[in-house]
Amino acid sequence: YPSEFLIQKITEDNQIPLHLHVSVSLQYVAGLKGNALVEFFHGSIAEVENEELRHLMWSSVLFYKTPNIEVMACVLLSTKAIYFLLDDSFIHADEHQSEFWTKENWDCDNSSFHLSCCFVLKLNDLQSVNVGLFDQYFRIAGHSADHIVTCLTRDSYETHTFIQQLMAVLSLLARTPSPEPVDKDFYSEFGSKNTGKMENYELIHSSRVKFIYPNEEEIGDLAFLVAEKMDCLTDLQSLNILLYVLAFQVNHIEGSAPNTSSLQPKTLILTSSDLFLFDEDYISYPLPDFAKEPPQRDKYQLADGRRIRHLDRVLMGYQTYPQALTFVFDDVQNQDLMQNLALDHFGE
Question: In degrees, to the nearest 5, what angle opens at C-alpha 222 toward C-alphas 217 and 224?
Fold first, then answer.
């Protein structure tokens, strides 16, 4: 029996982000409040009778085997597992799903029965959690390619809250204790003798799950990559990344209603002289232990880049979060961009 505070907290968190469209089945879940939500969890999702629902979060998710399909999910954390209630669009888009998801089983248009796909990752199978730069996303990894999921929260508070709840739940797991660690000094703990580089900061939880956080070198590598994309030789020491944020680029669909638009996930990076949009691979890096070869694409791929000095004005929408920003540039000839881009994102 969850406490009143927990029920209230889960009810408050049960809100689909306004800018994302979801299927009827997930809209049904988002409409549940209070005890009805807890009863739905125990009646339709929970795998064992005595597990408790501890946290609920709405987030876009990516799977390791389908890195190009970002899908909306309701993420439910219990004392036994992490459940991902997935949008119907994922089931139709992914050919690798089991044969159960066929048209014969999908005839629920004229009924009040809502069918949705649920992916389950048991806490006992969890091996590591990689937190992305500036807590914009995190990757949960198990022992195989089927057990790697990235949650693109695009919100440091959501990421922090989920990680805290996950650590608390993992503390309840009964696992055999790790052998006593040998006392190490700072340099042997964090330094790699082969390369002389600092490794990513790792926190090994009492449940033996690794929580891996990015270190300063990751920002340095990103700064070097950004400097490479700029059309002049910039002094790397003076190049500062002022902002890194996971955002959406709004592409208006031609020939459709005026308000119809598609949202393309992009990583926005702002330096003291340029504004960049990158297509980032959020799921393949760092490489999991079982990976035999590097991914097909680089972690960062430049989609667009503009000089700040060519920025004419910034238009701000009046709607609530998430806020829409339109950057208007006056570089008509676009001389400063390294490569030709077929698509002009900012109008004529």
Answer: 95
